[in-house]
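Predict the 3D structure for this chain.
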Amino acid sequence: MAAFSIPLSGLAATASSLGVIANNLANLNTVGYKDETVGFGSIFNQMQGTSGNGDPIQIGGGVQTESTTANFSDGNVASTGVSSNMALQGKGFFVVQGNGQTLYTRSGNFTVNPQGQLCTPGGQLVQGYPAVNGVVSTASPIGPLTVGPAGSIPAAATSS
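Done. Predicted structure below.
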């Protein structure tokens, strides 16, 4: 039976790895996507006794997928020409809220809704600490970020 189980464990682990690679390729151009890496481990299931110094002698039983980890290193930061877009460098996430759920994202392709609030393309509101006269108050609870009309001048009729 071991003649089939060991190679089958390798095929199962490889299939898992191919699934992660396919997901990485499918999200190659997804804003804020973090690629993943698969970690493998040996399966030891039979003891053969002990060595001269008392260490166990084990027979391998194949391989298994032990972990799938996301790569949180910084990616390329490029200007999009959109003033509401943001990027994170280092650790951290943007906090967004929608449909009663608080979620976290590293994607910073934000827009401004008609109420002047910063939001994701899916309509979730970007959360942050309020600022009064340019001073951020971290003692206050976070809430939706509202951006002012900085850089815009309301239209006015001319006389000519």
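The two ends are 93 Å apart (CA to CA).
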